[in-house]
Amino acid sequence: MQLTHIDKSGQASMVDVADKSATVREARACATVVMQPETLALIEQNQLDKGDVLAVARIAGIQAAKKTADLIPLCHPLALSKVAVEFSINNQGSAVDIHSYCKLVGQTGVEMEALAAVSIAALTIIDMCKAVDQGMTVQNMRVTYKSGGRRGTYIG
Fold first, then answer.
1. Is 74 annotated as ligand-binding?
2. What is the spatial distance between Cα 22 and Cα 19, in angstroms, rounded to a whole number?
3. Does 5 carry a binding-site annotation?
4. Which of 4, 37, 109, 141 has the fewest Cβ atoms within 10 angstroms?
5. Contact 33, 85 (CB under 8 A)
6. In the UniProt entry, which residues are flagged as the active site (predicted)?
7. 102-154 per-position pLDDT tens digit
8. Is 113 annotated as a binding residue?
């Protein structure tokens, strides 16, 4: 297996996708923000001073997906047709589970955009809650699904 972002002389380079066919590309990713039960209760009751944590985190995640090429040097700028960020409350694990979905018709995949969405949504939750809980952690960030392109469908 060869890394795609390394040229013949061993230098980092952007992959040339000009010869690839444009296909529907989709990706899903997830991450979990673990926190104190009291912090989770404040989020659920919308009682934090900074406002609606999940609404702000959703917008931050969507913006991150759209700006991925500005954040990760060798990512192609993409015209995303859909970005969604959803949350579920995990009371047993005292956590917020984050799920993203990205879609486009293009020549390269959207896995990094889906990961950027959950990453920045998670960091936004931490930023909005750090005054009451400094011990929050982000866990299990990963791509859970991708389709389109030559490698086909991946389910993780």
1. yes
2. 9
3. no
4. 4
5. no
6. 127
7. 999 999 989 999 999 999 999 999 999 999 999 999 999 999 999 998 888 99
8. yes
Strands (E), 73-147: 82-90, 95-106, 137-147
pTM assigned to the model: 0.91
Annotated binding-site residue? 75: yes
Rounded average pLDDT over 60-65: 98
Q: Do the Cβ atoms of 141 and 31 come closer than 8 Å? A: yes
Assigned CATH for 23-145: 3.30.70.640
Model pLDDT, residue 149: 84
CA distances from 155 to 6, 20, 40, 118, 141 (A): 26, 22, 30, 17, 14
Query: Which residue type is seen at 151?
Result: R
**Within a 10 A sphere around the Cβ of 127, how many other Cβ atoms?**
16
Residues labelled catalytic:
127
